[in-house]
């Protein structure tokens, strides 16, 4: 692990076995318009067995990069490992298969500055999450690289807002602010930021979540219990390079994760979470049900 640097923003990126997508994400970070020296990038390699280490080595002299290796402990533990060593007062989470726009780091920083200190603790900023579907991604990396490097946002026209993201971000009434008691549903860890001191106050992600899903919403829930304000920032956009999962992966993963979430917070029944994530329950109905419990 390389030595820390003086900075005010730390971006934490967990990765496991996504070398090609990681290379595109790191390339996008080389294009950031934030001032040099004001931010750092911490990539946590959670036991990758592909070429992720070689990719990281190739960007070592092109980015304010620090790397950590963890033993396949899961996304929650990987994010915590990165946040733990962050030297910035502000921690931004971005996934390894999500390429940020050039304004990404600056937009997160400025959104926190605009919102003030958020009742003494700070606040959460949720970025704009888009999804890009590219058939045969591995063979099209040069096309992706050129799109990311272009002065115009060429990926915008090819992207869409994922259905779940569109559903929950409707809680931001004017596109930026929300007072909803279920605003924790918008804590989308692929593109979200908060002060490090607030992350430490909550204890970070629950590392009992070793599989896929809901570890981010569970942390969001605890942040709302503290009274944390949430804001949305459309300028802090990143593009998720979608990839296939095995048949039934999402259902199996969410069913396991909802059991753990409900065990931690029995006031939110697992059945309601499954209705919201898998069965098309509108977020307004979920909000009404949860608020009435």
Tell me what the structure shows:
This protein is an alpha/beta fold and 293 residues long. The chain is globular. It is built from 11 helices and 10 strands. Helix 9 (249-264) packs antiparallel against helix 10 (270-278). Strands 1, 2, 3, 4, 5, 6, 7, 8, 9 and 10 form a 10-stranded mixed sheet that branches. Helix 2 links the parallel strand 2 and strand 3 (65-70).
Key words describing this protein structure:
293 residues; alpha/beta; 11 helices; 10 strands; 20% strand; globular; disordered N terminus
In short:
With 293 residues, the protein is an alpha/beta fold. It has helices spanning 19-29, 52-58, 75-85, 104-115, 141-149, 163-169, 196-202, 215-225, 249-264, 270-278, 283-291, and strands spanning 9-15, 39-46, 65-70, 90-94, 98-100, 124-132, 159-160, 177-178, 191-195, 230-241.
């Amino acid at each position: 692990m390389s030595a820390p640097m003086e900075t005010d923003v730390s971006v934490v990126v967990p990765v496991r076995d996504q070398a090609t997508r990681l290379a595109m994400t790191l390339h996008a970070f080389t294009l950031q318009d934030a001032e040099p020296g004001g931010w750092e990038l911490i990539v946590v390699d959670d036991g990758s067995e592909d070429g992720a280490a070689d990719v990281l080595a190739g960007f070592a002299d092109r980015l304010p990069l620090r790397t950590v290796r963890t033993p396949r402990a899961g996304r929650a533990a990987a994010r915590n490992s990165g946040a733990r060593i962050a030297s910035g007062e502000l921690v931004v989470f971005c996934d390894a298969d999500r390429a940020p726009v050039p304004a990404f780091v600056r937009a997160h920083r400025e959104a926190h500055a605009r919102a003030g200190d958020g009742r003494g603790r700070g606040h959460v900023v949720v970025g704009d999450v888009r999804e890009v579907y590219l058939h045969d991604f591995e063979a099209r990396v040069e096309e992706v690289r050129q799109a990311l490097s272009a002065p115009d946002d060429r990926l915008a026209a090819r992207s869409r807002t994922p259905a779940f993201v569109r559903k929950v971000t409707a809680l931001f009434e004017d596109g930026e602010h929300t007072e909803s008691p279920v605003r924790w549903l918008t804590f989308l860890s692929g593109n979200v930021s908060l002060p490090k001191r607030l992350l430490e106050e909550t204890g970070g992600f629950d590392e009992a979540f070793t599989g896929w899903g809901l570890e981010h919403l569970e942390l969001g829930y605890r942040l709302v219990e503290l009274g944390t304000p949430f804001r949305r920032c459309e300028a802090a956009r990143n593009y998720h390079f979608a990839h296939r999962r095995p048949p039934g992966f999402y259902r199996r993963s969410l069913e396991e994760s909802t059991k753990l979430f409900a065990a931690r917070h029995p006031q939110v029944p697992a059945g309601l979470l499954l209705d919201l994530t898998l069965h098309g329950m509108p977020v307004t109905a979920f909000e009404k049900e949860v608020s009435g419990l």
